[in-house]
Amino acid sequence: QVQLVESGGGLVQAGDSLRLSCAASGRTFSTYAMAWFRQAPGKEREFVSGIRRSGGNTYYADYADSLKGRFTISGDNAKNTVYLRMNSLKPEDTAVYYCAAGAGLGRAVREYRYWGQGTQVTVSS
Fold it and tell me: How far apart are CA 54 and CA 63, in angstroms?
């Protein structure tokens, strides 16, 4: 059973940065594709970024088009942890951010079998 635990959320001001962490059980990061999704009140859960191992120590990352350049995903295989660095945060980034793990790297919620409990990010203007 894969367990994912997010941390690092909080209340920040517009323009600030945050780094979210997702600690995974077992060898999740080296076995599964891992991704970040977010869900704002009244909206559907949406893909933010994902990462998967593409061979050796090489990893492939994907980003939602609207977030490319502000958000950076990375991982630490030794710590079995995935990070999401978020810069120049905007009020519209306010949401619960979820970590997910699945067999392949995709942008759809249904492609991920395992989910964390989420961490709240609130950006004030």
Answer: 16
Q: Is 45 exposed, middle or buried (0-12, 13-18, 19+ CB in 10 A)?
A: middle
Q: Which residues pair with 99 in a beta bridge?
A: 36
What is the residue-level pLDDT of the chain in tens, covering all 125 positions?
Answer: 899 999 999 999 999 999 999 999 988 888 899 999 999 999 999 999 999 988 777 889 999 999 989 999 999 989 999 999 999 999 999 999 999 999 999 999 999 999 999 999 999 99
Of 69, 114, 88, 8, the closest CA to residue 61 belongs to 69
* Tokens 């994902």, residue located: 50
